[in-house]
Amino acid sequence: MVLSNEAIKNSYFELMHKGDSMKNNIDLHMHSIYSDGSYTPEELVICARQKGLSAISLTDHDTTDGLREAREQCKLQNIQFVNGVEINSYYSLNGRRVNIHVLGYAFEEQQIQPYMKKLKQLRYEHNEAIRKKLLAIGIALSYEDLGLSSDKNIITRLNFAKALVKKGYAGNVQEALIKYLHKGGTAYVEYHNDPFDVVAQKIHEAGGIVSLAHPAEYELDDTDMESLILCLKKEGLEAVECIHPSQSVLYSDKIRAIAENNDLKLTGGSDFHGRGEDENGLGIGGQGMAIPETFLSALLKKTSL
């Protein structure tokens, strides 16, 4: 799908990008200390209040442990809160495995707990395999090095990368990811996650809404990306994250067009991880785009919540 320069010049997202006010804007993608973020849920909510955001969702990786804290602080700060989670998954597109992230929203927290327990075990097994590969090349990382504590029980590759940088095995997080943890790296381990249809089913069983996170990160051309979205819709996809730091104004417009042409809703978020991780901060996507409250109202209206 190709949009002309004139179309982009007059696009909704281009106009939104030029706005300075965060009033009536939201953020539906962020991480806390309960996964690979550096802020507590309470700190994230306070930051959101300072930014003037009207609604947020906490979307930690494979865990909902921080939702109660975020929800309670949102009540104090008069911010609308939506339950959220980000789950690793994959889809086989034309015989090719595409690793994707799935965002679940507005689910019943207790109903999704059995699945969260399973994901936590998968994470533990994956992390143990990475630690063994690192140890085989002379790098010993304890769970304390990785930031595991009584409050934090989800470790991601980002936690490994930060620990490797801190111990001097890499100059920065990106180098650590490429050298050790991404595919082709010396400690890479394939994550044995569930296919998209299973993840979508689990979110739906808990009364939730399913969105595809940051499509620009899957390195698909326009044709394959549209094919992926249409295939996922057949298996339960209801929305697509069209505003994200990895996505330009042009790319966001492409995603918006695909979504609108196929009766899919839009979501957006900063994917904020905290101190020293994100230049733009909460409430901001690629090229300074803000996320409008209309995304959330339309998303929740879809399921009459």
Q: Within the largest sheet, what's the order of strands?
A: 7-6-5-4-3-2-1-8
Overall average pLDDT: 91
Tally of alpha and pi helices? 11
Secondary-structure element pattern, one letter each: HHEHEHEEHHHHEHEHEEH
Which structural category do the helix and sheet elements fall into?
alpha/beta
Judging by the overall fold, what is the CATH architecture of the domain at 5-108 and 194-302? Alpha-Beta Barrel
**Looking at CATH, which topology of the domain at 5-108 and 194-302 would you report?**
TIM Barrel
| Proportion of residues in extended strands | 15-25%
Total DSSP E strands: 8
Largest sheet: 8 strands, mixed
Rg over CA atoms, rounded to whole Å, is 19 Å
Question: What ranges have pLDDT less than 50 throughout 5 or more consecutive residues?
Answer: none
What's the CATH H-level homologous superfamily of the domain at 5-108 and 194-302? Answer: Metal-dependent hydrolases
Share of helical residues: 40-55%
CATH class of the domain at 5-108 and 194-302: Alpha Beta
N/C terminus separation:
33 Å
The gross shape turns out to be globular
